[in-house]
Structures are given as structure tokens and as C-alpha cells.
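Thread title: Can someone regenerate the structure for this chain?

I was given the following input by a collaborator and told the matching C-alpha cells would be attached. They weren't. Posting the sequence so someone can regenerate them.
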Amino acid sequence: MIEKSKRIPFKSLALTGSLWVFSLFINFDFPIKAIALFGLIMAGFWIYSIYRDIPGAVFSPCLWRFKKSFNWILIAIILSLMFAIYSRIEDGLPAIPSKIGSFVIVAVLIGFIEEVVFRGFVQGGAQPWNQMGAIALASVSHAGYKAMLFVFPLQHLNNSALELFGYTFLAGLILGYSRHVTGSLWPAILAHCFFDFWLYMEQSSAPWWVW
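Best answer:
Regenerated them for you:
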């Protein structure tokens, strides 16, 4: 009989696969888009399954405390600001936004949810298997999810999907390591939310890839 701790990486991998199916097919019209919706439903199933086996993967009280995380929060926000400014310049936008649009609230919420999913459920679900492996898995999971939004059908990007994968993967390693060191999700959450806030601050409506 396989021990529970040995089965948990499979659930994190299954959650990753479900999210990748969603991002890969969401840009199609129906009926192909139904494949994406099926992936989203399966992602919900695997999130519940990870929660059932390891409720502490996301909902442990210590993960929502700021203890030992202030320095990491500062580091993460500074890095996210630098990356957001770089991304804005790459997109032909001014480094400093000139106004605050209505979409920014949704952008921050998306960043929050993504960190709960990737640094929370994917990484937290794989930690009993291997701490460093869990960080890498969550980083690959998040990077693949982002990149696949733009490749099928092929979308125009200022950077290639491969470059987007690389940037997101490296950022994920830092954010995942912050969870490992501090035992808190806040450095990753605040960094991601601040990045999305700064990058999309002027948006008055959702970009095409927000559903």
C-alpha cells in the first residue's frame, strides 16, 4: 500500500495538469472551450483533494501570520516593483503609471488567487514529498500556466512564450523559497499583488486573457 505522503506529489501534479489544460484551451470558441472548463472543474477537484489530505497546505494559521516575514515582504515587493517597471517598459508603457483604472482591483485579486493556488495548494501539497522539489514544482506549474495562455492558438507577445515561462519560473522560485523560509504565504501574496497592481494600474477594463 502506498503511503499517503507518497501520493501527494501526484495530486499536485494532477492539479498542475488540470490548470494547464484550462490555460491551453480557454482562448478557443465553443465547443473546444469546453475542454478548458473541464480542466477548471478538475482543478477544483484536486484542490479539494489536497485540502482533504493536508489541510495545513494552505489553511494552517501560521501561513497567514507575518512572523519572521517582514524582511522577505520588503525584498519581494522591491523585486516585484523592479520586474513590473521592466514589464511596463517592454510593453511600451511609462515606468510610473499616470492613473488608477477600475481593473486594478481585479488584477490584485487575481494575483492573490494565483499565489493561494500555486504557492499554497501546489507547493503545500508537494512539501511532504520534498521541500525543494515542491518549490520547483510550483514554479514550473505557474510558469507553464502563464505561458500556455499565449501559445494555443498562438498569441502576439512582446516577449516569447518561452521568455514568459522563464521569467515566471524564476519569480516563482523566489516566491516559493520565501514560503519555505518564513513559513508564511504573505511575502509571495503581497509581492504578486503589488506586481499586478503596478503593471495594470492604468487598465480601465480587463485584458483579453481575463475571463
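Residues 1-5 have pLDDT under 50 and may be disordered.
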